[in-house]
Write the structure tokens for this entry.
Amino acid sequence: MFSRGLHELIEIFVRAWVVIGLDPNESDEIGER
């Protein structure tokens, strides 16, 4: 359960990171995926 929730938090954090645009290089890789 905990690991599952942690995974969700990480996913949300990554999405927020991309939306904020703190790291355009990372967003490019995620965009390709």
